[in-house]
Amino acid sequence: MTEVLNTLRTLDPETDFTIFSENPDADALLILNACETGCATRPDFPGPVILVTPESVDRDSVSPHTLEREIFLHLKKIRITESTQNGEQK
Predict the structure, then answer these.
(1) 72 CB contacts (<8 Å, ≥6 apart)?
(2) Is the pLDDT at 83 greater than 80, yes or no?
(3) Which of 16, 22, 25, 57 is the most buried (most CB within 10 A)?
(4) CB–CB of 54/38 below 8 Å?
(5) Residue 60: which H helix or E strand, with range?
(6) Whether the Cβ atoms of residue 28 and residue 75 lie closer than 8 Å to each other
(7) What is the DSSP string of 6-57?
(8) How confident is the model over 13-21, as a mean pLDDT?
């Protein structure tokens, strides 16, 4: 999943991807599971969560070749939702 994170940082350089324990006030929680069952511990987080396994994003099956793109699209959807809720323009 390190490769996935590095690709996301390239696709979305304006997003600050940090470790939850270092920034628990983040806008969204991205859980990158290396196992297919999504066994990573999920911390108590009140905001939007994107759960990723090697073969799924938010429990929807995706091709390993499009995994990073699907995560990026989920992040974009969260931003649009938040900006709409805050009364900002898309």
Answers:
(1) 8, 11, 12
(2) yes
(3) 57
(4) no
(5) strand 60-61
(6) yes
(7) HHHHHH-TTS----GGG-TT-S-EEEE-SSTT--SPPP--SS-EEEEETTEE
(8) 91
